[in-house]
Description:
The chain is α+β, with helices and mostly antiparallel strands. It has a single domain, classed as (Glycosyl)asparaginase (Glutamine Phosphoribosylpyrophosphate, subunit 1, domain 1), CATH 3.60.20. 33% of the residues lie in helices and 23% in strands. It has helices at residues 22-44, 49-61, 106-116, 124-133, 141-144, 147-156, 230-235, 238-249, 253-264; strands at 5-12, 82-88, 94-100, 121-123, 176-182, 188-194, 215-217, 223-228, 272-277, 283-284, 291-298, 303-308. β9 and β10 form a beta hairpin.
Amino acid sequence: MNNxxxxxxxxxxxxVKGLMTEALESKYKKALKNALETGYHLLENGGSxxxxxEMAVKVLEDSPLFNAGKGAVFTAEGTHEMDASIMDGKTLNxxxxxxxxxxxNPVALARDVMEKSSHVxxxxxxxxxxxxxxxxxxxxxxxxxxELRYQQWQAIKGSEEFQLDHSVKKDSKFxxxxxxxxDKNGNIAGATSTGGMTNKKWGRVGDSPMxxxxxxxxxxTCAVSCTGSGEFFIRGVVAYDVSCLMEHxxxxxxxxxxxxxxxxxxxxxxxxxxxxxxxRGNIAMPFNTEGMYRASKSSSGIEEISIYK
Length: 309
């Protein structure tokens, strides 16, 4: 039987070590463990990689601690605009949504785009129409209200600044959640979901919903979910770049992931991290920031839940 495994992340860059209290760190680790165990339990019982990444991301979207789903940050207009994507390594099918509001679990909507439409990527009003036609309940803004997120927005509201999630200085946290998994049949999948940037304007979209940039999965190589400075991850086509280095240069999963995060993305001043898995259940979780909320577990006995380096 194939070695099976799952890795998840809740964003790269973190609250600066000095600002992270023991109580808060414990809350984050508990939330990560909850998502990890939910996904791993499904894998153990023969669940498909695709079902597993969707379920793990949903658990993270339901936590107000992460900038996705319930914890989504406020835009310049005081609304929540969310993005998500999912990809199946077995078929190369993918689905993505961007600029959706009131959707409790954007990753589920992304999967429905993949399975219930002939498209890959729906955005804005069209994505919302698709959601309604598929019976999605549109939550009221109260569901997404979080006092910390509101205060973050108030601090820079009306200015030209934007902020990447939990940070005091604007570059210390990129809020995205994601999961990658390899199931008992050796199939792999990846999913990513985000609430974007605090005070973002003009319908800004980052790498999270973009296939090849924020997510990618191919049984021949790897499944990847990214978190970082989205503009740079789009320019670097980061998720596909890891796969490409494995396919065309013969690099191992770890070598390819390290090359992209510690060298290629840094050459264009990008920061962040990624989680990746191959069809043998090997895992890589590199990042070039102070930390990355991350966790992994495999049938070979590896288990990790970490925030800092």
